[in-house]
Design a protein that fits this description.
The longest helix has 22 residues. The radius of gyration is 23 Å and the shape is globular. It is built from 1 helix and 8 strands. The strands form 2 sheets. It has a 6-stranded antiparallel sheet with strand order 1-2-3-6-7-8, with no helix packed on it. It is of the alpha+beta class. A hairpin with a 5-residue loop joins strand 6 and strand 7.
Length: 163
């Protein structure tokens, strides 16, 4: 009788321990989170973002629509692209910087972009770095907006790299 009781108790303990172990697992999201940091001069720059899972979809004009858009959620009637996926993309500077000839104070900013069909873009540094994406974007929270003409960069093909 006691042996039967102990067997049931041990079985219950094993089940409770194994189920709580599975509850601790953190599975990756579809859009993986990443941080990129670089020191430029004396300033550390960090971008925190989630990489969009493209899954064979067309990006510019489709997955990332051109211009400002009503995303159908949140308080913003017109939203830029959040420069990533899932959570708000942020950029941090440890010192004041100059972006396209304009000063931007040290700090952390929400990073948003307006992508235009002609290939140009507006980069928006928002004082609101904690909003979830662009769903609650408010132009009055912009710290800086700059218009840019993206250029194609040539990188060494990975096939040329041998390990």
């Amino acid at each position: 009788m006691i042996q039967n009781y102990l067997s049931k108790l041990v079985l219950c303990l094993i089940i409770s321990i194994s189920s709580s172990a599975f509850a601790q697992l953190s599975f990756p999201s579809g859009s993986q989170h990443a941080n990129v940091s670089q020191r430029v001069g004396i300033t550390d720059i960090t971008i925190s973002y989630s990489r969009p899972s493209v899954k064979g979809r067309e990006i510019w004009g489709k997955l990332v629509p051109y211009g400002m858009n009503n995303l159908g959620f949140g308080t913003a009637s017109e939203s830029p692209w959040r420069a990533g996926a899932d959570e708000n993309t942020t950029i941090s500077f440890t010192h004041d910087v100059t972006v396209e000839g304009k000063t931007l104070k040290a700090g952390t900013y929400g990073l948003h972009m307006i992508i235009y069909e002609d290939g140009k873009a507006t980069i928006i540094f928002s004082n609101n770095s904690t909003a979830w994406g662009s769903f609650f974007y408010e132009p009055k929270e912009d710290a800086l907006r700059v218009d840019v003409q993206p250029v194609k960069l040539l990188f060494m093909s990975c096939s040329l790299i041998t390990l």
